[in-house]
Amino acid sequence: MTSKAGFEKGSRFMYILHRIIGSQVDMSPDLTRAVCKMKITITCRFTFDDIEMDNDADCRFFFFLEKRGQRWGVVFYTLLFDKDKFTPVNPERIYSIPEDEVKQYPSGYKYLAWAENKISQPPKMNLNAHGPERNILYGRMKTWLEGGQIRPDLTGEDDPHWKP
Question: Using one digit for the tens of pLDDT, what is the confidence trace for 103-118?
Fold first, then answer.
């Protein structure tokens, strides 16, 4: 949705590109469930005050898969952001991003979240690889591979036994 909404906004938000860096698949012992982890860099181009900036965000996508009959399918997926940065397209033209505005966002994608908010696209705030979301997600992966049921909520609020 963010990409489609961005295209509709025109030159302030131009495109999103995903580059896959590597992947790993963990299987359940009975070979009916899997979790695929993909390392990806997402690049988005933004324009602020006629200055083009590229945001590169390193993240990990997590796909929860299940074999039903003879077919595999994705049941749930999410991602966590590890780190991001802004780079000017033209090194001579720099856009200053106020640190006091950026620090309110999760550390793994603070510049991307700031930019999304700046173009009126509210960012999701629970995708940080450096917060409790990581531990919640890794717990969900273990539960999934052991045959348990999971809910796609990375806040931990849906699990009465979860402790931050």
Answer: 999 999 999 999 999 9
